Amino acid sequence: MTALNPTHDPKLRSWVASANEAGCDFPIQNLPFGRFRPAGGSEGFRIGVAIGDQVLDLRAAGLVDTDDMNVLLAHGAAERQALRTAISEGLREGSPKQAAWSKALLAQSAVELTVPCRIGDYTDFYTGIHHATTVGKLFRPDQPLMPNYKWVPIGYHGRASSIGVSGQRFKRPQGQTKAPGTDPSEAPSFGPSKRLDYELELGFVVGQGNALGEPIDIASAEQHLFGVTLLNDWSARDLQAWEYQPLGPFLSKSFTTTLSPWIVTMEALAPFRAKFERSAGDPQPLPYLDSPANREAGALDITLEVWLQTAKMREAGEEAVRLTRGNTTQAAYWTAAQLVTHHTVNGCNLQPGDLLGSGTLSGPQPDEAGSLLELTLGGKQPITLPNGERRTFLEDGDTLSLRGYCERAGATRIGLGEVSGTVLAAA
Predict the structure, then answer these.
(1) 242, 188 Cβ separation under 8 angstroms
(2) Domains of the chain, first to last
(3) Measured in whole angstroms, how far is the alpha carbon of residue 383 from the centre of its chain?
(4) pLDDT at residue number 271
């Protein structure tokens, strides 16, 4: 895990004025990576770092010699830290780089952002214990959690080709559905999903990979992670209920997944680590998933929010409303390091750019739910919005946004940005 160093100093200020504003997601202490090109352009995407409301073109600034983000991901932790230090020193007030680097800045409002790296494989985990428990109670009141949940990080292989970037507009998925309790001899229905939902997640981006057959131990697991992004695992709950037994999610998940355009590095998150502690009475992780460092600071302290703007709100000029707010320290039952270690313990080879979803991160309270499935108790308790509209699940025209940030006394607040998507009518 990264130790605090001069790049985290809360007294640091940047010559990019917007980076010094209160509440800014991208102060000089953050420096998240993404890919961009001038809006409306046809050229290839380049590697950039967000600073205030600007993007620093790393190649134009002479910091990298590639436009391939996955090349940077493959670098070791020491090289990543050296690059972060160089960027921080060049962007801080009084830097001799200001005159040259100011020519390598573009306003974020003037660029097109894309998925921050080339994603080869996508694994979605199920680390949110409150989500798992609440959803489990809806379907298995007598046994909300399956016996393996507290022993093994549960995950499934997702669809990488349908991952998009924040701001995407996607069509409501179609598929087969069959209501529980109906006559087994009756044919299922086919049509658009009527129970479209979101899932509030983090995405962990793999940096340096491992060779096939060589597991990554818990002590070195975080050295193989480049950083964290916001992730919305859109879910068609009615399709999912019919298809997921016995093999798990398929069409209910593969129609789209949305990422933030920015990867906040593990180095930037160093001031916002927390103890990893299990509730009294819960089993402790097996030895291969346990280490003193993971217990001491394996958890991430990130506040996550969900916002909704309906088509009617948008037409009336009304801003989005916050549905929920929670924190990852209360939501995640497994740490990022444990996910990496378990994923590779059988010899599986991770590669630069692979994406690991956290699973839905819900807190213990109702207003910390990470999905509408929980917030409305399976659609039984609709929520009423300030303009009088009601929702059980997402409707056409709805724009759903996830936001995340870290703040702690003695450290500068940093943000993960926003990931949003808008539901369109089915084809």
Answers:
(1) yes
(2) 6-114 (2.30.30.230), 122-424 (3.90.850.10)
(3) 25
(4) 98
- Greatest alpha-carbon span in the chain: 75
Nearest C-alpha neighbor of 386 from the set 313, 325, 315 = 313
CB atoms within 10 A of CB 1: 16
Q: Calculate Rg over the CA atoms of the chain.
A: 21
Cα 194 to Cα 152, 162, 174, 222, 390: the distances in Å are 32, 21, 9, 40, 15
Q: Choosing from 8, 75, 130, 131, which is the catalytic residue?
A: 131
pLDDT at 245: 84
> Which uninterrupted H or E stretch holds 56?
strand 54-57
Q: Which of the four pLDDT bands, split at 50, 70 and 90, describes residue 246?
A: confident
DSSP string, 308-351: EE-HHHHHTTPPPEEEEEEEHHHHBSS-HHHHHHHHHTTSPPP-
131 is catalytic: yes
Q: How confident is the model at residue 109, as a pLDDT?
A: 97
The strands making up 46-51's β-sheet, listed across from edge to edge, are 105-107, 54-57, 46-51, 33-38, 111-114
